[in-house]
From TrEMBL:
Record organism: Marinospirillum alkalitolerans
Catalytic residues as annotated in Swiss-Prot or TrEMBL: H117 (pros-phosphohistidine intermediate)
Matches recorded under NCBIfam families: PRK00668.1 (NF001908)
Its EC number(s): 2.7.4.6
Cofactor: Mg(2+)
Domain of life the protein comes from: Bacteria
Pfam family, one: NDK
UniProt name for this protein: Nucleoside diphosphate kinase
Length: 142
């Protein structure tokens, strides 16, 4: 399997709950490595650009409101099969449907406030990593 990179965001609800460390521990225990990380307050423009593919969806304004409601932790995770592995660790978008033991099942409240984001494909991962990090900010570990 190929070593991949994927973008992870610990969303404002999880930051507010003070579970940043517990979430990162799950990535590390699964063999993923943090190769870039920063905490930041997203502007509306940044959140809208990041979620541009959802612009026409009815929940877009709520999503942007939520993602700008407090600081987030943005990370690049690296590892074997990192994109799918991260999605499996996260669980389903709606925490009520997320498998037991997943991050969203354990830490998320609702489909809006669902604790984490993870890139859903290689193309998304490439775009999303570049959206938040310059090449020299990503520290190769493999
Ligand atoms: P994902 O985060 O699991 O990849 P996406 O379908 O890409 O899910 O949606 C992006 C984000 O938009 C979700 O994480 C969630 O916060 C929000 N979202 C998705 N669908 C809904 C919905 O039906 N109502 C409210 N928010 C939604």
């Amino acid at each position: 399997m190929a070593v991949e990179r994927t973008l992870s965001i610990i969303k404002p609800d999880a930051v507010a709950k003070n579970v940043i460390g517990e979430i990162i521990a799950r990535f590390e225990k699964a063999g993923l490595r943090v190769v870039a990380a920063k905490m930041q307050q997203l502007s509306r423009e940044q959140a809208e650009g990041f979620y541009a593919e959802h612009k026409e969806r009815p929940f877009f304004k709520d999503l942007v409101d939520f993602m700008t409601s407090g600081p987030v932790v943005v990370q690049v995770l690296e590892g074997e099969n990192a994109i799918v592995q991260n999605r499996e660790l996260m669980g389903a978008t709606n925490p009520k449907e997320a498998a037991p033991g997943t991050i969203r099942a354990d830490f998320a409240e609702s489909i809006d406030a669902n604790a984490v984001h993870g890139s859903d494909s290689a193309a998304s991962a490439e775009r999303e990593v570049a959206y938040f990090f310059a090449a020299e900010e990503v520290c190769a570990r493999s």
